[in-house]
Amino acid sequence: xxxxxxxxxxxxxxxxGYISKGFNKFEDDIFVDNLLQQDIFCLQExxxxxxxxxxxxNFQRPVHLIRPRTKPSGKRHxxxxxxxxxxxxxxxxxxxxxxxxxxxxxxxxxxxxFQEDLxxxxxxxxxxxxxxxxxxxxxxxxxxxNDIVKYSQSGKIMIAGDLNARTACEIDHxxxxxxxxxxxxxxxxxxxxxxxxxxxxxxxxxxxxxxLSLCISSSLRILNGRTMGDLMGAHTCFQPLGSSVVDxxxxxxxxxxxxxxxxxxxxxxxxxxxxxxSCMLKCNTKIYERNLNLALMPDKYIWDDNSVSAFQMKSKxxxxxxxxxFMTKIQLIMPQKI
Length: 338
Description:
By secondary structure, the protein is of the alpha+beta class. Helix content is 20%, strand content 26%. It has 6 helices and 16 strands. Helix 4 (140-151) runs parallel beside helix 5 (206-218).
């Protein structure tokens, strides 16, 4: 079977460990079903070994970045796992990485119908006060910026993950940028006038200022708070001391019109204190699929003591799916002006 794929669903989620109070999230049908809706996704803070990573039948050959065990507890912390849907795997290449804190993917322009290659960086930037971060002899954002300089010469850039950066509503580009009054380099590109980004998080920290500086220097723009589906900048992290926006998607400014939506999913406290975030990017690729497996509805549903909470969680995920489909339809009818 051959069909044309017009959109890529890309997601990232800090799951705060695959085990929580003896509960294995990887064995939960609702957790897994939520991931199966994506084409490319990254799980952060997996806390797992290679022998207990999540396995999915339609996402073969995932890549896992695993930190060494901490001493003296012997526990795992951090960890990234990146999954690519089998049907698009031939168009994706994992690039060499210098640390286990981030990883780059290259999406081939010919395979996906892009004008240029797309380089996606999935990252988990630990909190500044964590013992792991204090021992690092490098700055993660600076390393990513160096890679951006290299990869931006041959394609566009996306950054996604938990950056532990709070940026409030601060500007991520040069306002009223112009080359009319002072001499500039011939290849200098002026920043476009963009709609004001919004955020329900009014705080900004040092990491946030570093991220905003990276956006300005690298012509990256934050999707949170300015893209259809999240025009108010919803909170992405919920903790006892308060809520915040620390999980982001960033993209090259020229890519913004190609995003159908950006979505902060419903908060599912049984799975994580972070919300899953996702976006849909326009593409044009032909998919060759030998067997189309259609899931059949069960003849009946057997209710038990756990059915109430399972139903409530499934309803949240279903509402997310309905919202995404609605936003996609609205985008087709009324294209967003960037």
